[in-house]
Amino acid sequence: MTDSHPVHILIADDDPDDCLLTCEAFKECQVANPLHFVHNGEELMDYLKRRPPYNDDKLHPLPGLILLDLNMPLKDGREALIEINADKQLRAIPVVILTTSSAEEDIVHSYQAGGSSFITKPVSFSGLLKVVKALSRYWLEIVKLPVDRNRL
Question: In angstroms, rounded to a whole number, what is the distance separating the alpha carbons of residues 59 and 78?
């Protein structure tokens, strides 16, 4: 993360407990990047497409990384991933699938639909800490993400 342009992380997950645990894991791992949450695929697409109530760029900036649960109401993560990758601007945002599924068909579909990584959610908080540390190290320290999303 750079001080002047932090990478905002958008987490799409319908489970409030998982959202809370993920937030706590980021804090415990001292990842200071701003986290934003949506709770279903419709909200995710409204956020990414800048539709109300997510049309304020200051409150809801375009993310540099999306953590996506596959099993959500209204529009699931599978459908949202296809829609994200059909959009020229949005497809440049890395989407890490972070879900309870470990089904081979979900893994294959996620990569075919443009997912950047597939991670099965760990069952323990210590496992989640390991995942957050690895995500942080790779996506926020090693990988170079574009700062100016308008140039994509």
Answer: 26
